[in-house]
Amino acid sequence: MTTNPPERSGTGGTAHMPTRSGTGGTAHMPARSGTGGTTHMPARSGTSGTARLADRYRRLIAVYPTEYRRLRGEELIGTLLDAAAPGQRFPSPADVVDLTRGALRVRARGRYRPALRDGAAWASPVAMALAAGLAVFFWIAIEPHGTPMVGSAPTLGPWCYVAWVLALAGWVTETRYVTRWLLATAAAVTLLMLLPIGAVHPGAPHRPPLWTVLALILLGTLAGLGTPREPSRRIRAGTAVGAMLVTGAATLLYRVEPGYGSGYYGSVVTVAGTVVAITVALAFGAAALRARSRRRQDARSAIWAALLLALPGGVLGPLGWQPPARMPEWVTPAGLPHFGRLAEVVLSACVIVGAMAWLAAGEPATGARQPAARQPAAGKRRPECGDPLRRAGAIAGGSAVGLGICATLSATAVRTDIAVTVTLLVLVALGAGRPARYARWAGATAACWVVVAVPVTSYASGWAGVPARVSPLALTLVTTLALVPFTLAIYGAARVFAAAATGADADGPDVGTLVRATVVLGAAGSWVGLATLPHLADWGPVLLLLAIVATAAAGRGIHRIIGRRRVASHLATGDARSQPSPR
Amino acid sequence: MTVPLQEPTFLILTALASSPRHGYGIVQEVATLSDGRVRLRPGTLYGALDRLADQGLVAATSEEIVDGRLRRYYTLTDDGVSALQAEVTRLRHNADAAATRLGGRTGTERGRGAPGTAPA
């Protein structure tokens, strides 16, 4: 009732110290006083056997996060040693299990965000309705009564569509356990579609296109992650009605839309993408309404729900898809390749994940309320606002190397588009500055490029094994992946500018960092712009989706900058509440 | 605190009710309280303490080094006391209700089941 507990207030601790140890113990207590103290604590407990056991425990608790160990490490080891049997020399297997589980829990806590959990719970019924509704739409639009319009052979689509309808039936009538099993089964059946049956049996039925398969699996995963434990009758009925609405709206759009071809590669996928984009827009609308009614936490959850739904939405809908064989000219006169559907899907995924990161950065994880997360270790560098930018620079450098290796493997003459891409990647890497700290990121990225080139090459050749050389088409597709480092770089630069805009604290960027961010933004932005703008007309619903997400993210960012002081004061009161007075 | 406490959590709060204790002290006290049934392991214990500290039910009060080992003492906060109090009330109410109903049942059971019992 009277004093603050020293746990969170740092040095205040010694005043309330009951002198049990008689030697004024806490004065020598190195735990939170910095200098990386705790690891140097003398393990001077009698026999060398105990010291050795302590060392073994110390190695064992390395599974915990560094910050956590700094705060709790010696205390944990002390308790482990207290609890150890006399003469015990090794940690027991039960200790190993217990500590591993504890460490996993701590690590999960650090990333745990209540708004994300609520957002997933809200997105789940919507995702279920979309998955089942779209499956039925695909079925009746493309393959009514089993007379498909793709080529001459029926596709395997109805097999997985019926599984999604069954999952919806489970959702409406069954328990969560059964529903999840049905969802997993539907996802597995859908995944089976990807088996390259055509390569073995040339006459075998086709599968639905990769993108519809991916979208259904993503929607099903989302539905399964947030399945309510005991859904109310309203949610059950609402999901069924929602699925019917999805089918109805998609069928209506399909009728109204002029259409430019039959089958999956016609307007069906576009219509499906439009329906998802409209749903995402509605979710953002709900978020805005909630924000206006001052239910901030709810608004945050609704934004999470909208972003989660947008992720599968980004897979559906681009127009203008043409089979590779009909597109011999892979390099436009501008020197850049004609980026197809892959670019649209990759960029939308990057933008949506970036928006999620933006949202997460503004929301402290619940684990951050622990003192360990709030007080950076003395020996450890404080995170700076330019860190994402430098990391993105290192990744861009690694990408330049990786793309260079892929281009060399293709053994074709130097292509303008590759040269431009590599040059801009190098420019981003140099512009971001101090890449040495993130050398490991660069190395891993370069390796990733080479590894990713394998499935892409196989995809480019119609999944007919892995060709010995990277074909020109495959090289173009691999180049498309440069969207990832470039959007990372744009995100890093945006973080710097946002920090400059909020500015009040001492962590703001200096002039040098701002200049670097501008250079990086220019280089990365010009590549993404050149690669995407000439073909924006082909983007269809994905463009709509990205416009919605970008508008919401921008609105959120402005709101954050304006409301920063208010949020800071709110957090301060939260902290005060989390420091209850001791009895 | 509307959600019922889980047994280990309940026992940890109970162990801290009378006086502040350090980690191993809590382990021992919980073992005593549960007649040796619940043996907390350190990973579990500190996971629970982190959670309780986050909820503001428990706070660390002091530290000392004994025999080269760091001991941090934990105590119940005011919120922790009221949470434990509420749980005690809830459990007592449930136990009373169960005892009352069982009392009623024993009567009927005895009256009804007498002929069928003791075949040997």
Brief digest:
By secondary structure, chain A is mostly helical. Helix content of chain A is 66%, strand content 0%. In chain A, helix 10 crosses helix 11.
Shape of chain A: globular
Helix and strand string of chain B, N-terminal first? HEHHEEH
Q: Structural class from helices and strands of chain A?
A: mainly alpha
Q: Please report the number of helical segments of chain A.
A: 22
Distance between the termini of chain A: 5 Å
What fraction strand of chain B?
15-25%
Biggest sheet character of chain B: 3 strands, antiparallel
Task: Estimate percent helicity of chain A.
Answer: 55-70%
Strands of chain A, total number: 0
Q: Could you report the average pLDDT of chain A, rounded to the nearest whole number? A: 74
- Radius of gyration of chain A from CA coordinates: 28 Å
SSE pattern of chain A: HHHHHHHHHHHHHHHHHHHHHH
Q: Name the overall outline of chain B.
A: elongated
Secondary-structure blueprint:
The complex is a heterodimer of chains A (583) and B (120).
Chain A: H1 6-9, H2 48-60, H3 66-83, H4 93-110, H5 114-142, H6 157-173, H7 176-192, H8 197-200, H9 210-225, H10 233-256, H11 264-292, H12 296-313, H13 341-361, H14 371-374, H15 387-410, H16 416-432, H17 439-460, H18 472-480, H19 483-502, H20 511-532, H21 541-562, H22 564-577
Chain B: H1 7-15, E1 21-22, H2 23-33, H3 42-54, E2 58-66, E3 69-76, H4 78-113
Antiparallel strand pairs in B: 1-3, 2-3
Helix pairs in contact in B: 1-2
